[in-house]
Amino acid sequence: VQLVESGGGLVQPGGSLRLSCAASGFTFGSYVVYWYRQAPGKERELVAAITSVGGGTNYAASVKGRFTISRDNAKNTVYLQMSSLKPEDTAVYYCRALGGYFDSWGQGTQVTVSS
To answer: Are 47 and 63 in contact (CB under 8 A)?
Structure first.
C-alpha cells in the first residue's frame, strides 16, 4: 500500500503546477482523498478533498478559486491543479487516502513559489 506524490517544484508567483498522487496496492476509488500542506514552522493544513463517489470537492478558503482537485480512478491517481500561485503557497504537499480503518499518507512533494 503506497501513495506517491509528484509534480512539485519551483515556480514564479502567478504560475501553475499540477501535483499528482498515485496509489498502488489498493483501489484508490474507494476512498476519500485529501491534499494537505505544511509550511516551515506551521501546522499541517487541509487544502482540498474529493469524495470517493460522485467526485464532490471541498477547498480551504485560502485556495478556493485557484486550486482544483480531481481524480482518475482508472489510473488510480488524484490531481491537484494549482494556479495563480502565491509565495504563501510554498509548502510540502501531502496526499492522504481515508476510509473506514484505512488511513494512508504519501511522503510529500515540495512546492516553492518564488521569484
So the answer is: yes
